[in-house]
Amino acid sequence: DGGITQSPKYLFRKEGQNVTLSCEQNLNHDAMYWYRQDPGQGLRLIYYSQIVNDFQKGDIAEGYSVSREKKESFPLTVTSAQKNPTAFYLCASSMSGYRTDTQYFGPGTRLTVL
Amino acid sequence: EDQVTQSPEALRLQEGESSSLNCSYTVSGLRGLFWYRQDPGKGPEFLFTLYSAGEEKEKERLKATLTKKESFLHITAPKPEDSATYLCAVPSYKLSFGAGTTVTVRA
Fold first, then answer.
1. Nearest beta carbon to residue B46 from set A40, A45, A104
2. CA A16, CA A85: separation in Å to the nearest integer?
3. Residues of A in contact with B36 (CB under 8 A)
4. Which residues make Cβ contacts (< 8 Å) with residue A63, sequence separation at least 6?
């Protein structure tokens, strides 16, 4: 089955730790995205990548980093510089990076800071 | 700045009680509108894309319509399994999401 997988489903972080969230897709999509979802707010774009070895900051990139070494993978690192990282993180992909392409989402990772 | 506003924030329905959700937007040069369904603790699931004013799309008990200023998601004779948060999104330089409408359908 084609789709997007995210791991882990739940993640707990201590203050001062960096953590990495995994996102893999087998849809052969060129573009991948990371969003953050907080209660009562719309999804906010953290980073996106339209092609391997290239990525751009979204609206709330501070305290986050990404890499795109393979077409299938787009991991997100939440660094200790992110002041309020507790949230639900969603990875998405689309066929190309064109803005009207449909984005398909993974199941999400819930990150909690202890 | 592009804005997407969904109303109401929450909607409680009795099974079989039809209703509508609203998504209004301020985007210059609308190039489409997306509707997603999100169950608690899960990622959004794609429902529809509407590209031009007057367009309508249907899926089971859901029907989405689009005007120049807003979109409606009509839920006809809902069942408890239609309970979810419904998100709309509009592409500008990025995909801008509304905060969603949480629908609860009671048996």
1. A104
2. 11
3. 105
4. A78, A79, A81, A82, A83, A85
Cα separation, A2 vs A29, in Å, equals 11
> Six-digit token pair at A12?
């707990």
3-state secondary structure of B60: coil
Q: What is the pLDDT along chain A (114 residues), one digit of tens a residue?
A: 679 999 999 999 888 899 999 999 999 999 999 999 998 888 999 999 999 999 999 999 999 999 999 999 999 999 998 889 999 999 999 998 888 899 999 999 999 998
Token digits of residue B53: 């004013």
Q: How far apart are CA A108 and CA A6, in angstroms?
A: 6
